[in-house]
Amino acid sequence: MIGYESFDTWWWPYLFIAIAGWLATDIWRWLGVLVGNRLSEESAALTWVRAVATALVAGVIAKLILYPTGALQETPVLIRLIAVAAGFTAFLIAGKRIWVGIAVSLALLIGGQFLLTI
To answer: Which keywords are on file for this protein (predicted)?
Structure first.
């Protein structure tokens, strides 16, 4: 029987991951395009999808702020919260330009980490 372990080449795991990842995600993307083209932008279904997507992004951001991993874990929670609040404020003041919010948040995070090492 041929299985995952049957192939003894270095590239097989990478090919397997690429194919499995493509199959798992691309089908849903194409279905989303096909179904989404038929929906009105004001439809209840599309409003619900946008709300769920926004909630998922907010959840990921909250997890990164409150329960970070890696180097961000060494930064105090207060600095992370200040960076997010200032970045969001800068985003709104700059006319909803994402890069401004990201730049302000990153500058405050880097500055906060720098001040902690002094």
So the answer is: Membrane, Transmembrane, Transmembrane helix
